[in-house]
C-alpha cells in the first residue's frame, strides 16, 4: 500500500546545477507530499549524458542532499537516492560507486537507448529490445543492489520516437514476454523490491490511459504480493508529482494505492 504521499524519483541535477533543488522541493511541499527522494543518475563510464552526477562527485551529491534535508526538516522528508543504469557487464563499476556515498534508496533501471548503451541495442526490433530489457530488469532485482525497479517498460517510449533514438520503429508485443514478466513478479515478491509506478509516460504521450509500467503489466502484478512506489521522474521542478492524482483514480492503478 502507498500509505504516504511520496515522490521517489526526481532529478534536480544537484551537483551540476545546485540552484535548481529548491524549486523541486517547494513544488513537492505545495502539492502536499510527505516525502521526496532525489535520484540523480549514477556516473557511468559508457555514458556521458549531462544530467549525470560527475565522476568522483557522488560523496558531494550525498552531502548536498543531506544539507537540503536538514534545511527543510519539519516541512518535508528528503531522502538520498540514486538511479543506477543496471547492466550485468558493469557490476564492478556499480559496486565501486555505491561505496562512495550514503544512500536511503537505490533505483534500478535499464536505459539501453541512451548514448553509450544504445550500441547494445540500436539494431534490435521492439520485441528483441523488450526481451533484453526485461531480462536485465530480472537480473537487477536478483542482484540485491536495488530497493525499487523504475519504469519497467520504458522501451514503450523509445519506440514512439524513432527519429530521436536509433531504433527500429514498432511496438513490442507483451504476450511474447508474459512468462518473463511473471518471473520478474515472482522475484519482486521474493526480494521485496518495490515496483515503481512512473508517471513520465504521461509527458512522453505513450498511451491514453497508462503509465510505466503499462496497465497490462500492472494487472499481472496484482496476482503477486508486491509493493509499489510512485515516481514522477521529474527532470524539471514543474514535473514533480505530475499525474499522481490521475494515477490514483485510474481503474488500472488505484489498486496499487489501496490494497
Helix and strand layout, with pairings?
Elements: E1 6-10, H1 21-30, E2 35-38, H2 58-71, E3 77-85, H3 91-98, E4 105-109, H4 126-143, E5 148-149, H5 155-158, H6 178-191, E6 194-198, H7 200-204, H8 215-221, E7 228-231, H9 244-249, H10 254-258
Parallel strand pairs: 1-2, 2-3, 3-4, 4-5, 5-6, 6-7
Helix pairs in contact: 4-6
Describe this structure in words.
The chain has helices at residues 21-30, 58-71, 91-98, 126-143, 155-158, 178-191, 200-204, 215-221, 244-249, 254-258, and strands spanning 6-10, 35-38, 77-85, 105-109, 148-149, 194-198, 228-231. With 259 residues, it is of the alpha/beta class. The protein has a 7-stranded parallel beta sheet. Helix 4 packs parallel to helix 6 (178-191). The protein has 10 helices and 7 strands. The protein has a single domain (6-258), classed as TIM Barrel (Alpha-Beta Barrel). Strand 2 (35-38), helix 2 (58-71) and strand 3 form a beta-alpha-beta unit. It starts with 5 loop residues before the first strand and ends with a helix. The mean pLDDT is 87.
Q: How many structurally independent domains?
A: 1
CATH topology: TIM Barrel
Q: Major sheet: order of its strands?
A: 1-2-3-4-5-6-7
Total helical elements: 10
Order of helices and strands: EHEHEHEHEHHEHHEHH
Instruction: Flag low-confidence runs.
Output: none
Structural class of the secondary structure composition? alpha/beta
CATH second-level architecture:
Alpha-Beta Barrel
Radius of gyration equals 17 Å
Shape: globular
Top CATH class? Alpha Beta
Q: What portion of residues belong to β-strands?
A: 5-15%
The total count of strands amounts to: 7
Helix content: 25-40%
Tell me the major beta sheet. Answer: 7 strands, parallel
Head-to-tail CA distance between termini: 5 Å
What is the CATH superfamily?
Metal-dependent hydrolases
Mean pLDDT: 87
